[in-house]
Amino acid sequence: MAHSSRLVDLVHERIEDFLAERTSILRSISPDLDPLDLFSRRFLSGGKRFRALFCYWGWEAVHGRGFDPFDADDEVDLAPVVSAAAALELFHAAALVHDDIIDKSDTRRGAPSAHRLFETLHAESGWAGEADAFGIDAAILLGDLLLGWSDELLDAGLDALPDRAAARAARTEFMRMRTEVTAGQYLDILEERAWVAQPDDEQRLRAERIIVYKSAKYSIEAPLVIGGAIAGADGAQSAALREFGLPLGIAYQLRDDLLGVYGDPEVTGKPSGDDLREGKRTMLVAIARERLSAGQRRLLDELLGDPDLDADQIRMLQRTIAECGAVDELESMISDHAARAVAVLERAPLSQAARSELGALVRTVTRRSS
């Protein structure tokens, strides 16, 4: 894990250097733009950097040199993959800013979400108009700015790649990822409203489609394939990265769904039961609806999505979902998908060092508490 730790440091340094370059442009325009600089740095300063790690290990899986990030004399040029990994972190930050607006979330990682930060700035400055409207408008622009910067950072890295076919393959995968995650986000907000008009026997299928396109591909599969593409992956190697990444990405999101209902707010940085208040139609909810009695199902449907649910109602829903066996079934699904990913590694045409590190990451992302 030492190599992963060093890689995270390199990505952080690349992000800091890039922000210094871009925010100097903002300062040259107006000091009024300082909050865009401040808040962008805040949203890029933390996180687990999973996407960056998967991008790097996708690269190492194909490159296979056993690069030592602690060896200053190693001649391997990491600039392309480090820039791509950093670009994925900027893209993720943009998605979180927009996601918090959509979900009306007040917090992110235990601190105010972007639109709440801008809302507070408005209120404390005594400006005209509604503070909450300004907060949403400004956060949308911050997300757009981060999204554009992620493209710039990716291109800066790919421009340094001598293999132009590899650069095109990486860029193609990045663009596909952008399309897929936007489609998945739309399907997510659609399902919160359209579920009532859909057949009950399709809810698992619809929940899984959201998992795949909103999270699984963009969180794990795409970063792996982008990293592999930068290293010049052949068809078999790209296929192996996809076959490993997709089931692990699904397991990752299923764990996220459990944390969204049962997570400790001191660890997750989100209120307990947040997904219940937001009305998320997750796989956990789909399984629970299948297992509950008609009366319990009606009560779940009535309460799910009520932003004013109190602590007692949250605890009652948590207990109801657990007692019907939905949590146990979801845990089993997480284990099954993780096992599928591990099985792919055993036969994959990838470097031994990467297979070992990716196996460790399977455990990290599926057993996490935040």
Number of helices: 16
- Class by helix and strand content? mainly alpha
CATH topology (level 3) name of the largest domain: Farnesyl Diphosphate Synthase
Form type: globular
Rg estimate, integer Å: 21 Å
Unreliable stretches, pLDDT < 50, 5 or more residues? none
Count up the domains: 2
Residue share in helix: over 70%
The CATH C-level class name of the largest domain: Mainly Alpha
Averaging pLDDT over every residue, what do you get?
94
Order of helices and strands: HHHHEEHHHHHHHHHHHH
- Major beta-sheet overview: 2 strands, antiparallel
Report the end-to-end length measured between terminal Cα atoms.
19 Å
Number of strands: 2
Annotated CATH homologous superfamily of the largest domain:
Farnesyl Diphosphate Synthase
Work out the strand percent.
under 5%
CATH architecture identity of the largest domain: Orthogonal Bundle
Placed side by side, the strands forming the largest sheet appear as 1-2
